[in-house]
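ERR on first pass: missing label on line 2. Operator R.T. fixed the label and resubmitted. Corrected input:
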Amino acid sequence: MRMSKLLIPTLKEDPSDAEVISHKLMLRAGMIRKLTSGIYSYLPLGYRSLRKVEQIVREEMDAAGAQEVFLPAVQPAELWKESGRWNVYGPELLRFKDRHNRECCFGPTHEEVVTDLVRRDVRSYKELPLNLYQIQTKFRDEIRPRFGLMRGREFIMKDGYSFDATEEGAEKSYRAMWEAYSRIFSRCGLRFRAVEADSGPIGGSFSHEFMVLADTGEDTVVSCDTCDYAANLEKAEIRQPAVAPPAGPGSKKRVTTPGMSTIEQVSEFLGVKARDLIKTLILRTERGPVAVLIRGDHDLNEIKIKNMLNVTEIELADQRTIEDVTGGPTGFSGPIGLKNVQVLADNAILGMTSAVVGGNEQDVHVVDVNPQTDFHVDVYGDLRSAQEGDLCPRCQGRLSFTKGIEVGHVFKLGDKYSRAMNATFLDAQGEDRPMIMGCYGIGVSRTVAAAIEQNHDQDGIIFPPAIAPFTVIVTPVGAKAQEIEDTAELIYRELWEHGIDALLDDRDERPGVKFKDADLMGIPFRVTVGKKTLSQGKVELRDRQTKAVELIDVAGVLQEVKSRSAGWQPLPRNRTCGGTLPRE
RNA sequence: CGGGGUGUAGCGCAGCCUGGUUAGCGCGCGUGCCUUGGGAGCACGAGGUCGCCGGUUCAAAUCCGGCCACCCCGACCA
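pass 2 clean. output:
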């Protein structure tokens, strides 16, 4: 395509309302424009990239046995009431009424619709398994949309749903999707990692998130430096080192700590390390308050506590609750003498001796406390978040942290929706049974943004060829000369005729402008046609990623571009992929 | 929703505190000349309800009140 005819409004300066790199660069490269908060238009360049990702997704989903459908975006409230989510989903669900005053919503996801579709037309185990997917616009009325396409309210998502007759079948479907996802992100040219994620009440390792690795990512990927264990921070398990034999009771000396209510204050005041303190946190759940003991230098993990207690709501207790439970003010809670409240403790507490705890009284702490003898704990468990350097739960390695952006999620749903919505089939024995479901999402528009977060430099975007809006840009430069223009045209046509997405910068601009725009747009290869080299019958081929320039024959451009884009690799920084599948 | 901030030409900003000629600057845009290997130069030009509504004042971009929009920090998630 010819650049002079395309709407590619590049900008020299960063727009003021863009904060993250992908947002800035997509605006500057003329890929997107904002309509309103969290809602964007895709211009030709942005849409081309998006479609490349979509196409890869399609090919891999189809290859994995999934079938593409297209489900309605506007959905009736009845369906959501049936699944029970109408009252659960909250304000993120965009609700409205039609002219007949019927309640509707704009689909943020499609479990209800797809389950309804399948229950109407699938009757027998002979028709299963079934895997349906679609690529379409979703709307989630996020509290705070931000970071451009990274967290928009309206976004493009691939969502897929599998239906199986048996648990084993469902696991097989899950595994097929896991593998398809790995292929998709590999083909996109991204460094990523599949990590174990929390699967809530279903349990097991039947939830994986696919994370594009990027320093600017919001999520923390925890991975082992030795084996291929990887999980997100919420999920990452902790292996506690062997516990020392129980010490005898401590002296339990009460000390005055005026106004010292934080870990930092107390440790500094008493001259001890944070790891020698025990935090006593009073939490409120829908089933009443609990006390949780965490070592001073550790962080509480709410997900783990929710799972252990099997509750859905958890928050730090307010002042009054703390006083009711401990008898003392906020900031001085301790485990000694706690009654009428369940006491949970992280495994690390077991290994402590001579610890410092709160005195459940204003300005009082207790030192020289030994957990195994000096206070009561109802349950010990893994209740904290992993830290770098912790032991790997699978091997002798250590855990390290990387930043990531979640672009995909595979999840085993079980019979949650099929049971609620009565999506059943007849098995071989003629018995009615709910289908076993799985759901699989890819944030297509977010994948484009994540690719940019991962691959950019000072000059702009560095697109992997597989998802670049154009593979190559042909740039005639220098004073107007027929030979230069003709050669550029020739090369451009040859590329295009051989199925290479080529862009011809036929604008009447100075070379510097063309080079800057080409870099900004992140087009992987640039063929520069100028008099400097044309006199020797050569043109320049520049690699956007390495910045390496090579002189090649005009006739060799096609072959060179083909082989280079096929062999393109992301710059090595971490292991490209990995993660563990659920065991067979 | 709580906390912080911004709204002046397509984009980036100054002016506002201390009210007062015709509201400026850079980029971009148009025309012409010139230039052509990393966002050139000169000249001329177009482009503004100063977010909206109201108030104070002889006079409001500027002071006051209300509203709206957007951005950033917290609870969500592809």
